[in-house]
């Protein structure tokens, strides 16, 4: 057999070897990263949630999302173990700004206008001027005539045989 004919197969096998080698290397690094977790370490899950490790089990990790809020995650769901300074920078970034929002206790505050007048007052929805009314009717009649003429002409165009009607 010709050695040049075997060259594509040798290249294919070499590429597969290199790809599996790099994948195994990444898996090994991820396992080492997960093994370096200790209680109190800040982590980011693969879903983008930041939490503090509270307890490490065989295949799972108990995370504290907020003080008093715990969740159990699979070890494979941990995307990154973060250094303490980076975790603090990310989690406490917006905490220095206090939000001054007034949240109403009930929906009655939402139904009032800006000047505290109740929204129960009726709003007049009718037309205001009689002149505007007569002009509007004339415009509507004109629009109806042009629409009827357009539909009649489109009917004759669709028939294809304009002389048969």
Automatic annotation (TrEMBL):
Membrane topology, record value: Single-pass membrane protein
Keywords: Cell membrane, Membrane, Protein transport, Translocation, Transmembrane, Transmembrane helix, Transport
InterPro entries: Preprotein_translocase_YajC
Subcellular locations according to the entry: Cell membrane
Comp. bias intervals (Acidic residues): 131-141
Cross-referenced Pfam families: YajC
Basic and acidic residues composition bias: residue spans: 119-130, 142-165
Similarity annotation: Belongs to the YajC family.
Protein name: Preprotein translocase subunit YajC
């Amino acid at each position: 057999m010709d050695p040049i004919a075997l060259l594509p197969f040798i290249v294919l096998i070499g590429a597969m070897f290199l790809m599996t080698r790099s994948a195994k290397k990444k898996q090994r690094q991820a396992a080492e990263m997960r093994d370096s977790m200790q209680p109190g370490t800040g982590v980011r899950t693969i879903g983008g949630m930041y939490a503090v490790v509270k307890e490490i089990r065989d295949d799972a990790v108990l995370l504290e999302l907020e003080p008093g809020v715990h969740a159990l995650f699979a070890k494979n769901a941990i995307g990154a173990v973060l250094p303490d300074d980076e975790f603090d920078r990310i989690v406490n970034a917006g905490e220095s700004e206090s939000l001054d929002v007034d949240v109403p206790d009930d929906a009655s505050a939402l139904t009032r206008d800006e000047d505290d007048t109740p929204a129960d007052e009726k709003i007049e929805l009718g037309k205001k001027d009689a002149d505007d009314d007569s002009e509007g009717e004339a415009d509507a009649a004109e629009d109806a005539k042009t629409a009827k003429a357009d539909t009649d002409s489109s009917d004759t165009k669709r028939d294809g045989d304009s002389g048969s009607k």
